[in-house]
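During the first year of the project, the team set up a workflow for recording each protein of interest as an amino acid sequence followed immediately by a discrete structure-token representation. This format lets reviewers and collaborators read both layers of information side by side without switching files. As required by the reporting guidelines, we include two representative entries from the current panel. The first entry is reproduced here exactly as it appears in our internal archive.
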Amino acid sequence: MRRTVGLVMVFVLISKITGFLREVAIAGTFGASLLADVYKSSMIVPGMVVSLFTVGLNASLIPILSSAERNNKREEFFQNFLSIVTFLSLVALLIIILFTGPITKLFVPGFEADKLAMTVKYTRIIAIIAPLQVLAYTIIAWLQQKERFYIAAFVGIPMNIIIIAGALLNRSGNLTIIAAATIVGYLAQFLWVFYPYWKTKPVINLKPTLSDPYLRMFWIMIIPILLTIAAGQINVLVDIALASSLGDGVVSNMDYANRVNMMFQSVLVLSLSSVLFTKQSKLSSADNKREVFQITKQNLSVLLIMMVPIALGTMFLSKEIMTILFVRGRYTLEAAAIGGSILFFYAPTIVTRAMMEMFGKLYFSLHMPKK
């Protein structure tokens, strides 16, 4: 297991490095400006849909797949589930396109009329990434449950490379070019995970049913998660709504700082918890709770030894980190000072998010989602 975690961590690190280069390229092209705010804000609505689906989906689906596997029902359940998720994601896309105006205005009420109109326009264009991400992460859960961690760990690399290329070639700062690159990047991410799934020659279910007992188990698992995620999303939306009235560049600077903050969780925490969660779920299905607690305790100890110093270092070097990572092109030292101040207050959540991730996965593996 340690070897798998180590390799996954290396692959995730490569993916996150390219993800950082993507943000650096975007910051260099647009800086912390009106156009950067429009681009970042146009990702909010599709991003919310993706978060509601994918975070809860991953945590709930893997334990259900493990349970179905014991009764040789895994593939039958997954084909039914994938058909239902495909339909729901397309409905979500339609809702975003039809109600983009009022939804966007709700999230960024401080934007002036022209800035808001641009955000609405590009939200409609970028909305297609929502179903692509939902389907990709559904398949990722299936791959992880089958212990094919490396494909999932590499998933962000094709997308990042394409968006980086779009930003670097976009010297004029044209939002349409970066929006197109974003869509192509997310399509590449979907194809990256879809190809190994398609190679298994799945039997596509064209007549999904809601009476599947494992589907009922999934809904029982995911409803508490959706409530928790919704609360977290409200927190984020309040931040963005307040920031939208503070002038051009503030929304994008918050996003840049948050990307830095989330890097450590993505590289260290998610790579560890993804491998650990599959082990926890299979041990729990075998009713071996003693071993579940033991491996969780060991990995949590290792994680905290790494995360506490990282959080402290990020707090006290926040402005330097933002300067080194982002100051180039149209991103200035003044913007880095503001971004560093934001990062200082984000940094303590590096530890708390790590603990939440570990304990959350433990409870999901034990089929105790209400915790």
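The second entry, processed by the same pipeline in the following quarter, appears below.
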Amino acid sequence: MKILQLCNKTPVPAKDGGSLAVLNMATELANQGHEVTILAVNTNKHHTSEDQIPDELRNKITFHFVEIDTDIKKTELVRNFFFSRYPYIAERFISETFRNK
């Protein structure tokens, strides 16, 4: 089975519960013979370069990272308050680049 995991941050390096859970699930699914792909938002806060992915994971799982600037910007926060129907915390992660990938 082909499996795509969409992630709001890169799971590598796995240094918190969320990234550990994503990576463990993907690894176990790959070990069971599934074709696993992870598409992750690569933010400034949790930035990862693809060379940080260990070869053992790269051989099991396909990784795609999309660079998105999710930093809080005061002008965008004010614009969002008056003119958006989405919460600003969510709107920062909406990306046409991610959607197209």
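For the second entry, the following points were noted during internal review. The CA atoms of residues 79 and 88 lie 9 Å apart. The first strand starts at residue 2 and ends at 7. Both points are flagged for discussion at the upcoming steering committee meeting.
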